[in-house]
Structure formats: C-alpha cells, structure tokens
Amino acid sequence: MNIEPTFIGKKIKMLREAKNISVEDMLARTGIDAEFYKLLEEDKEIPALGDLIKIVRVLGVRLGMLMDDYQDEGPVIHKAEDVSGSSVMRSRNGVSRKITYNSLSSRKGNRHMDTFTLDVTPAIGEISLSSHEGEEFLYVLEGEAQISYGKEKYILKVGDSIYFDSIVPHHIGSASDTQSARLLAVIYMPS
Questions:
Q1: Of 62, 108, 69, whose CA–CA distance to 85 is shortest?
Q2: DSSP 3-state helix, strand, coil percentages of the chain (rounded to 5)?
Q3: Residue 53: inside a domain, yes or no?
Q4: Same domain for 53 and 145?
C-alpha cells in the first residue's frame, strides 16, 4: 500500500509558531520526547493518535484541523470509495505497528466529534498506553481487537463495541498476532 505524506508535522509547526508556543513549552505540556517531536515537525515521523490529541489541546484547535484539507458547513457524505486523506500512525516507542486512519468527517467544519475507520496491524514488541481528554467509542468491523484500558484488557469481536473515557491510559490493537482488525472510531474532545 502506498502512503502519501501527511504534512501533519508542517501544520503543527505552523500553528505552534503562529500561536507563539515554543518547542520547549509544547514538550512540557504534552510529555512528548524531544527528538521524536523534532522529527515530527519535519514530517519524518508520524504521530500516534494520543500524541496528536495532546498537541491539538495545546494548540487550542480541533484534531480535524490537522487532518482536513477543506471544510463544509452542511451535511457531509463520505462515499465508500473515498479513501483520500488516509494517514498512517505508529507508536513512538519502537514498537512495529501501523494504524491506517481514514477520516469519515474530515470535510465537516465546526464538528465536535471525529470519526474514522482504523485498520490496526498486530503489534510486535511492548505496547505503551496513552491518554488524552475526551471520550472514545470503538466498534469492531473486521477481525478481533484488543483494547487495553488502565490495567484491564478487553477482546472485542466483530459487532462488539466499547465506550470509554480516554483520560484513562489505553491502547487499541489487533488481538491477533497475524491478522489486522478494522474498527469504527468516534472520538469526542471537549472544547
């Protein structure tokens, strides 16, 4: 699969500079590793969703602001064949894992929820939990997902769902060592 560059890092840098937020302040407020953040702003690394959410909170913008190319104020229809805007995110701790993200709401302006499909490959290595403000709803479309939430682990099969407060450290992954899982995700972040 070919993955187009996301240019998320350049957008983050532009917004950070426009709001006069230093790199040091960003690092202190997000807890993100300095070397990783430098590579992120150069578009040489791709952030995990949890890191992106921490960054947008500091910047005072919606998550969609980094992902969207244009916005509609009216209803937005996302056709099944429209997979433009996909991004790949991976954990920064060296774990070999990919999440293919496809926004289902990227053109909707002034939204309060972000909706995606997530294709999660099996993780190789130790996973790390992340947290951010808000709530998440996940629904398994294909495969089996393993959701680590605090000290608990939940295995979800096709048709299963989970709704949780995302301030609790969590991780979304495939429950299989060999097969990916596909999920529908709805994320709410308070303004």
A1: 69
A2: 25, 30, 50
A3: yes
A4: no
